[in-house]
Structure formats: structure tokens, C-alpha cells
Amino acid sequence: MPELPVRAVGFVGLGRMGDPMVRRLAAAGVDVRGHDAAPGPRTTFADLVTIVDKPAEVVPVDGEGPPVVVLMLPDSNVVEAVLGEGLLDALTPGTLLVDMGSSEPMRTKALAERVAARGAVMIDAPVSGGVSGATAGTLTIMVGGPDAEVAAITPLLAVLGRVRHVGPVGAGHALKALNNLMSASHLLASSEALLAGERFGLDPAVMLDAVNGSSGRSGSTENKWPNFVLPETYNSGFALALMVKDIRIALGLAEATGAPSALAARTVELWSEAAAALAPDADHTEIVRWLRAGESTDPDPRSDR
Ligand code: NAD
Question: Where does the record place the 3-hydroxyisobutyrate dehydrogenase-like NAD-binding domain (predicted)?
């Protein structure tokens, strides 16, 4: 593997995604200083990363290349709280602050100005590909930020996946929310169709095999249904609550720009109803369980079931 221009990274948020990402960085020879509010990850990471007690202590002091701090946190509220806990004041001039979580684009743009006031640069680099993509280093990374700094961070991000520079700061977060709006919509649409097929008497595995060679295919039919719904494991590692957060961001963006959003609005309603009915830590693929729970017990008499 070629030498990375960045040798030291601070990393805040060692959860489902942060965990495998940090492991990949450490395996690539990067010196990682990590912090998480939960005590669990600290012991898991004892031998891999230097764990520090406060977010401000993750900022690398003497690595090669620009100091880099990565955030992999649930949402903009937590990002701002962590920055307010001393991390913002600890950023040294030239530091690249890379928010890889799925945050709100407008809040990211506002934060970028506060970060710039410290002489540091904010980059948004949210990801798609889930826990399996984070583990395999095959995430798609949607990067927003200025050209020179994005170029400087790209070799490091390439350890984690496929880097796409999509625009200025905030652009990555906007695109990520829109991506998840598409994903949430087609998981609902595919699931309704597959449940209807099941009630008609079709085998879901047979339907998926046919659809995945047809125009109805999507990430939901190619990945989520075969890997998490059919085996009834519902363990994709992406929480339903985080999906609801993302699609609300996307709907807000659609409404703010005046784009058509009738389906987006209905999608947000349905996912929010599912979130209220399911356990707080439900996996997003459990939306299918929720749909099943709402199935009619009175099948259409025209079907032969
Ligand atoms: P997670 O809840 O598993 O991890 C978040 C981590 O942040 C936790 O370990 C938590 O303890 C920590 N944290 C919370 N508040 C903190 C604070 N104040 N200070 C320090 N640490 C704090 O979530 P995740 O699934 O890893 O997702 C992280 C981000 O990535 C989210 O924005 C999510 O939408 C996005 N994302 C997740 C997936 C996925 O498949 N899980 C895929 C793509 C994007």
C-alpha cells in the first residue's frame, strides 16, 4: 500500500460505522486517537487506537500532513455538541475537520464558517454502504468541500471506500440525505409489492430472483430483502431512527428548494409511523415487520388464498 500523506487522525464516534472505519485506518498504518461518549467501545479499541477522555484531545499534534479530525456521530445536534465540548477551540489552523456522519447540509454550512474562523477547514464526507461496506472498505463517500483540501484528504478516505467529490461544503450531506430518501422509498415500494405477491401465493425468493433481473430491482431487492428480511435477521446495522432523521432532512431540502415532494412527504409519514410503533433501537429493515403487522387479516376474496 502506498504511503498515506496523512499519518495521524483524531476520530470521534466509535459506533457501528466508526468501529470498522477506525479498524481499517489503523490497519493502513494510521495513528488513531479516538473518543466516544459510550464506555463500551473504549475497551474494544484498547489495543488499536489511543482512547482519550475528551473530544478536544483527539486533535493530532505531530503527525505528517495536515491534522485531520473525523466525526462519525449520529446527527448535527451531536456534531455541534461535540464541537462545543472543546473540540472547536482545540482545532489548530490548517486542521481538516471531516464530518462523515449524515448531518444536515444547512447546519454543516453554518458550522463550516465557525470552523473557518479558527483557520481550519470543514469537509462533509458522508457515506453509503452500511456496516458491511465500512468493514470491507467499499463505502461510497460523498465529499463536499474546497478542491485543495478535498484532494489532500482523498488518499486517506480512499482507505474507506470510493471517493466522489460532489461539490462545496454541505453538498455531501445534501446528496446523502437524498440518497437515503430514494433508499427509504424503494424499500417501502418493494416491500409492499413483495408482500402483495406473497399474499397472492408467490414465493419471495422466486420473486426476488426474477425482479433482480428486471426493471423493479433496487438496493432493497438486491441487498436488504435477501440479506436481512428473508433470513429474518433484521441486522443491517443501520437504525430505523437514523433513516427517519435522514429522510426528514431530504424532505426539508426538497421543500426548501420547491422541488416536488408528495412522495417524499408520504414516505416520511410512513417511516415515522413505523418508528413510533417499533422498538427505539429497531433496524431500518424492520420496516417490513411493521408492514406485516399492518396487513389485513381479510384477504381479497378474488385471490384464491
Ligand atoms: P451509532 O449510533 O452506532 O454510533 C454513533 C456513536 O456516536 C456511538 O458510539 C455513540 O456513543 C457516539 N456518540 C453519541 N453522542 C456522542 C457524544 N456526545 N460524544 C461522543 N460520542 C458520541 O451510529 P452509526 O450507525 O455508526 O451511524 C453514524 C452516522 O453514520 C449517522 O449519521 C448515520 O446516519 C450514518 N450512517 C450509518 C450507516 C449504517 O449502516 N449504520 C450507514 C451510512 C451512514
Answer: 170-291
Distance of CA 114 to the CA centre of its chain: 24
- Per residue in 201-246, pLDDT (tens digit) is 999 999 999 999 999 999 999 999 999 999 999 999 999 999 999 9
Partners of 50 in the β-ladder:
33
CB-based contacts of 178: which residues, under 8 Å, 6+ apart? 250, 253
Rounded CA gap, 153 and 159, in Å?
Answer: 11
| Domain count across the chain | 2
- Joined together, the cell numbers standing for residue 260 give 416536488
Q: Out of 53, 227, 242, give the residue to mutate to test ligand 1, the one with the largest number of ligand atoms within 8 Å of its CB.
A: 242
Ligand 1 neighbour 18 (Cβ under 6 A): yes
For residue 83, give Cα distances in angstroms to 35, 58, 73, 301: 13, 12, 11, 59
Clarify whether residues 237 and 215 are in a common domain.
yes
In a domain, 299, yes or no: no
Give dist(CA 221, CA 229) in Å, integer.
10
- Checking if the pLDDT of 301 tops 60, the result is no
